[in-house]
Amino acid sequence: MAYPSKLTPEAIVGAASELLRAGGAEAVGMRALASTLGVQPSSLYRHFADRAAVLAALEDQTSLELNAALTRATTGLPPAEALRAAAHAYLKFARSQPHAYGLLLMPRAPYTAQPGAGQDLWKSVLALVGAVTGQADDTAATVAFWAYMHGFATLELSGQFGRSGPRGGFERGLEALIMGLSHTD
User: Which of 79, 115, 103 is nearest to 153 (CA)?
Assistant: First the structure.
């Protein structure tokens, strides 16, 4: 067994991430995590208060990874094209990392904005949408965009589109949304 003093929060989150990707949030338990790391479960509590704290760290990691994917996809593009690229990157992320993405959808108490990875992700999407609408802090439009993305990804990942798939529904909805966001009175 490894010495607990060699254990770091980063190592714990890395091992938890492997468990998450292999089996979803249900697979991330303190005993399973300790077994993966070759330590006693009690040594994990020096770094994380409980399973919920480990899942919160994984959610932060997921937010960071998704934000990085959106940034890579949108850098240097004009506003509408950047929002379109962000939507495709978002959906690609959800498809390629469904268990990690699922952490962003887990039920929780009403959210209070706190500094951190989740808020940084929100601000990135807010800036992308604001560039299209012409309003720097367009929360309503950002909520509409985010709801579309979450909704589509959730429907697809849960198999709700059936064997025929969405049949171009993603592109059609995305174009309608971007056109609506671009409309100025």
Answer: 103
pLDDT (tens digit per residue) in 77-110: 999 999 999 999 999 999 999 999 999 888 766 6
pTM: 0.89
Among candidate residues 128, 126, 68, 59, the one with its CA nearest the CA of residue 99: 59
Domains of the chain: residue spans and CATH: 1-48 (1.10.10.60), 59-182 (1.10.357.10)
Give me the pLDDT at residue 34, please: 96
Distance CA 148, CA 173 (A): 8
Q: pLDDT digits over 160-176, tens only?
A: 988 777 888 999 999 99
Q: What b/e string do you get for 90-128 counting C-beta neighbours within 10 Å, with b at 16 or more?
A: bbebbeebebbbbbbeeeeeeeeeeeebbeebbebbbbb
